[in-house]
Amino acid sequence: MKNTTLKVALIGNPNTGKTSLFNQLTGLNQQVGNYPGVTVERKVGSCSLPHNKKATILDLPGTYSLNANSLDENLVIELLLNKKDKDYPDVAIVVTEVENLKRNLLLFTQIKDLEIPTILVINMADQMELKGISLDIPKLETALKTKIALISSRKSTGINELKDLIVNYEQLSTEPCLNASEIDSDYFNNLRRIYPNQQNYKLWLVISQDVNFGELSKNVLQNNSFSKSDEELKKLQHKETVKRYQFINNLLKEAKKVDVAKAKDLRSKLDSILTHKIGGYVIFFAILFLIFQSVFEWSSIPMEFIDESFASLSTWVNEHLPSGKLNDLVSQGIIPGVGGVVIFIPQIAILFLFISLLEESGYMSRVVFLMDKTMRRFGLSGKSVVPLISGTACAIPAIMATRNIENWKERLITILVTPFTTCAARIPVYAILIALIIPDKRIFGFLNLQGLTLMLLYTLGFLMAIVSATILNKMLQLKSKSFFVIEMPNYKMPYYKNVGLNVLEKTKTFVFGAGKIIVSLSIILWFMASYGPTDNFANAEEIITTESLNQSLSEEELQDKIASFKLENSYIGIIGKTIEPVIQPLGYDWKIGIGIVASFAAREVFVGTMATIYSVGSHSDEENTIKEKMRNEVNSVTGKPIYTFASGISLLLFYAFAMQCMSTLAIVKKETNSWKWPIIQLLFMSGLAYLVALTVFQFLK
Amino acid sequence: MQTTVDLLKKGEKAIIVAFNLETIPLKLIEMGCMEGHLVELVQAAPFGDPLYLDMNGTHLAIRKEMAKEIIVEIIHN
Questions:
Q1: pLDDT by residue (tens digit) across A103-114?
Q2: Can you tell me where the transmembrane regions are (chain B) (predicted)?
Q3: A109 CB within 8 Å of a chain B CB
């Protein structure tokens, strides 16, 4: 053998345990990245094989067939058709599941037509006894012209046998198991005549769909006397599918036996409870409540710890590095920037822990089924539920989770409204503003007024998402076919490895997706706050020291005053002052303006910025100090407090509705493939925020 | 008796006779929606839509709108 590292591709329908098998084969030796140019995950791992051989395992996105319906599926096809691709496999493993073998084999017969050495994995073999299923393996192997590995990816049985098959891949047949070109012999003979060196099935795939295959273009192939219209092509695809199913049905009639008496049905029992017309909703909302409750409860301790650790790291660096600009950049720009990303990890990880438990168990499909009709009224889909829930952690993974919504209009609306849900970055802003303007009282003896306000803001986020969806649904004149298919998989105990790795991946998506932007913007903001165009900035120390000569200020107070004066005259201070006329009607001054501008890195930056502005400086990070300073802040013209009930509520609502997250805009651009939608989103959300804040302030003041 | 999938009652089984090739997406065909295959209405969602079907052994849900396009022959057992 020339190469000791084999390239193996895992291919299979969703819900076949493909990912479990991938995790079994590779353990933690896996990397998740993106395919170039698109946000589809590319999962690769390494695995050691017998005889000291190694394999790189590529986990391809789940697909029902080689006819592409989505971006994820396009990738699978593009890779399998391009022998020059660096990922092109030496051997393909098609993962199927014993109960859905019939449907799963459709993809297998297509892969076989590509003449790649292919192993058939039949997963969940441990369930066969329980479900009364028996398989005639030799018969299947002969008919399908392959080798079969019966495995259980959860109980990790059959894995070694599979590894043996991989090592001996050269013994696998590369012959197709049926002759698909019989569906229209004339047509395929013509093709064969013109392109004698190309595989017939490959040509057919290129012709029948809109995927990019490099040197073979659909237009060129279609440019001949016998080319077919789109309608005829779909008819042929239908014929092809029928032919494949006939082959599979006939084979399984002989090779698969199901003892119906033995098949116990957990599915129908659970379904009747979980999709009950009243009970189903009660259970769903109870689960939701439990999730939110736990996200807050469990994350508070690690978040405090992270906050304190970064603060002390910052202080440590400040004291131990030689003082100067570099010191300031690291201790005031970079470390707080990174800390601002890390602080959200607990909430995001916990939320995704729950979501992935619900998905793994098969329950999420039932939620989609339950909610579809209701959601459709607002122009959304049942499949919008997951993004809307994920949005309460972070909009970035949430927007990526819209990818399985087939209907483009429903998907677009979901993407556009998801950022209204209250993401983790809004919480610190809400917390400090609520503490400032809402009294810490209980009503009716048990309802905490501050807690209630926070809950109202959450509800408001969801409501606004729904209302905007309704509006968008009316306004967007998009013709797209209503198309909704969802598989209702069997209920399963979630497999801890899959859940764990999924949480890890989602958290990484956030850290590296949003993290990059948050950190770089934090650094830019630091520069803008540390430099100013005028002499006032450069001579801040002198000016303040002279001014304060006859006031008996302590050294610390003096330093705070200088910092505050510097900020006022820095670039960012000037921006704040420039936008002051615009935000004055909302009840804000230029200092809040700075906070709003700074929030474009991530909303929670507001709190830190306020701390600097009100010259709490780095001496005391205590929230109470910031709060006191904010409370005492007065308007220089009217002499009235800045943070009143009216301006506070106005600011809360502004943060609830405004689009202030660069990272989200970036991901929307990627997912919609144009700047149009993120720009509309930015204008719509921020415009709405402005109007609402304006109305509320003018009404309440 | 011939009817369409959206009119099936819970637990009723039928054989797919024909469907509108223009409106039925290929994905649904691949999941088992084709002439001669068995389809059973497992359950309708609380507001009557979508429909939870067992199609040739595959459990899936589709909207009524699409179910209308699939003509079936009910089997009486």
A1: 899 999 999 988
A2: none
A3: no
